[in-house]
Design brief:
Elements (H helix, E strand, L loop, with lengths): L23 H8 L25 E5 L4 H6 L6 H13 L6 E5 L6 E4 L2 E4 L4 H18 L3 E5 L1 H8 L5 H4 L4 E2 L5 E5 L2 H5 L4 H15 L6
Parallel strand pairs: 1-2, 1-5, 5-7
Antiparallel strand pairs: 3-4, 6-7
Bound molecules: uracil.
């Protein structure tokens, strides 16, 4: 008797598989097949958050970059290295944190041989929101660290002004405390070494309260 092959459930455009249970792993599994916006098409893979599911600190960036897209891991490229350097200076272990992004696919344009970062638009940020919300709901961190305006606005609302409110603690209705600072890429983008040095010092200063937690 011929055995019937199980039919693959087609995932229509604009959708994603449902997590099979309430765990972070199941959420990650579902996010791997995300087609909620068009960013999955040119990207190599979904780059989901990484770290202990019971982490007390969740760090949120904008979106994976070139190296993250290729490796499947958040903050492993130049921005991640700068962030690691700041954490090391402050004596904070990244391994205790859960590190993720507001958007889980790399958005880029091709210029010659390089893939240049492009900011995700509001529709793409909204489509991806389900994953970030799901990560935070499952981890329930005490502290959220937002790197850059896209992460800060996702957590603190569109009125949040990064340059005015960076480094100041905010409290969410669920009791989680939030601190926002510039994105490490902002530090790397500074024109000369003096500006870079100053931007880096301010970045470390903003993160300093984490060392006391
Ligand atoms: N920039 C981000 O915002 N996140 C990453 O994972 C890498 C670079």
């Amino acid at each position: 008797m011929a055995t019937k092959k199980p039919r693959k459930r087609a995932v229509p455009e604009g959708s994603a598989p449902e997590p099979v249970d309430d765990s972070l792993d199941a959420l990650r599994g579902a996010a791997m097949g995300c087609k909620r916006c068009d960013l999955w098409k040119p990207a190599t893979q979904t780059v989901f958050g990484e770290g202990p599911p019971r982490a007390r600190i969740v760090v949120i960036g904008e979106q994976p970059g070139d190296q993250e897209d290729l490796s499947g891991r958040p903050f492993v490229g130049p921005a991640g290295k700068l962030f690691d350097r700041a954490l090391e200076e402050l004596g904070i272990g990244r391994a205790d944190m859960y590190v993720t992004n507001a958007v889980k696919h790399f958005k880029f344009e091709i210029r010659g041989k390089v893939r240049l970062h492009r900011s995700p638009d509001p529709g793409q940020q909204k489509a991806c929101r389900v994953w970030l919300d799901g990560e935070i709901e499952r981890i329930r961190p005490d502290v959220i660290v937002c790197l850059g305006a896209i992460a800060a606005k996702a957590i603190l609302g569109n009125k949040f002004g990064l340059m005015k409110q960076r480094g100041l603690w905010q409290t969410l209705p669920n009791g989680a405390r939030v601190i926002a600072t510039v994105h490490p890429s902002y530090v790397l983008r500074q024109r000369d070494s003096e500006s870079r040095h100053m931007a880096y010092a301010a970045f470390v200063r903003d993160l300093k309260p984490l060392a006391r937690l």
